[in-house]
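Z., the sequence and structure:
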Amino acid sequence: MTPSTADRPQMLVEEFEELARHAPESARLEFLHGKIGVKPMPDGNHGEIVAWLLKRCMQHRPELFLYPEQGLKVEAYRKGRAKPDGVLVPEGYFVGKGEWSDPAGVLMVVEVTSHDWDADRRDRVEKPDGYAAAGIPVYLLVDRDQNSVTVHADPEGGAYRSVTTRAFGTEIELPDPVGFTLDTAMLKEFAD
């Protein structure tokens, strides 16, 4: 039985990396489930949320840093390429790692939804699958469409076994290895 066209990747991961290397700065490319995706350029509120999270992480875990837009090798066998809005790792972790880093030491990835047609599939389905398959312990989704935060944790067998969602304005636990409680009250200011 031959796989359908939808099951075949659009290109090899090496071809994608070459394409991404030559893409204009205004195009933020990702490669998930064998398909090229373009992340929308962030708006002001998106940037404020990432900056706010960076500050919270530094307050609670000063030995860590939330790096924006760091390329990661994700999915099974590291065949996907993603650029999360934030990647929480020990400071200096990415020195010498190149554009697409192995996620072995990543503690948490963060995505902030953009108001675009592809956010549901990309941020709520493909990214959790890819991050779990890569063994990333925590995936934090700040969902501006739903006015909520979702913590995916405990990856096993390519899926997160624990998924907790809370409305903006409440507290949510970021489990170990992140290990602190996030008060999301300020996110109501950036919800639009």
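The helical segments are 13-22, 44-60, 119-133. The chain has one domain: 42-190.

Let me know what you think.
H.
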